[in-house]
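Handout, page 2. Input:
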Amino acid sequence: MRTFIGGHQAVSDNDFVELALGTPVELWLGVQGESEAERAARLDAARDILADIPGLPDRASRVAAEAIEAFAPEMFGVVPLMGANARRRQSARNGVAA
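Output:
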């Protein structure tokens, strides 16, 4: 199955993020082994883009939040805990005071 976003085909996770943000992921995260001059140029370009696209930080935050929500259990080994109310109900059924 092929996935298209705004007429562009997304074939990898990076493609989805890049198409959602409208900028390459490397612009924000950098690349391994970049020099200080390359890093400074990349950050200058990122600042210019943020100044030109006022909604980008909100879009980036939304993409990050959606990714964390979708993949948090796998990424962080999250295990749902019983809520406090469920523990009280269970304790009350067992005859133990909460």
